Amino acid sequence: MFPIPENTDFLLANAESKNLYLNLIEQINKDFNLANEGIDFPLSVSPEELKIQLHEKIYRMIQYKFAEYLNLLYIIDVSESEIKKLDGSDLVLLAEQVSFLILKREWQKVWFRNHYK
Fold it and tell me: In the chain, pLDDT over 70 holds for what percent of residues?
C-alpha cells in the first residue's frame, strides 16, 4: 500500500530511506522537461536544497508564467481537486503547498514503479 506522506520532509526522508531519492530527482527533471520548463536538479542535490529550489521555481511560475504552471500541473498529473482546496491568498504559502503536491505525485510515480517492477 502506498504510504501517503504527511509533509515534504517526511516524503524526502522516506525516499532516501528506500534508496529512491535519485529516482525521485530524475522523475522531477523528466516531467519538468516534458512541460518545457527546464529544471535540472543534479543528482547530488540535498533534500533541503531540492525543497527550496522547487518552491522558488513554482513561486516564479505562478507569478510570471501561469499558463506554463497549469501545463506543468497537467503533465505531472497533480490532482485538480487537491489544487482547488488550496487558499491562493498568500502566494508564498500557495507555492509551498503546490510544491508538496508535486513532490507527492512524483513520489507516488516512483514508489509504484519500484514496488511493482
Answer: 100
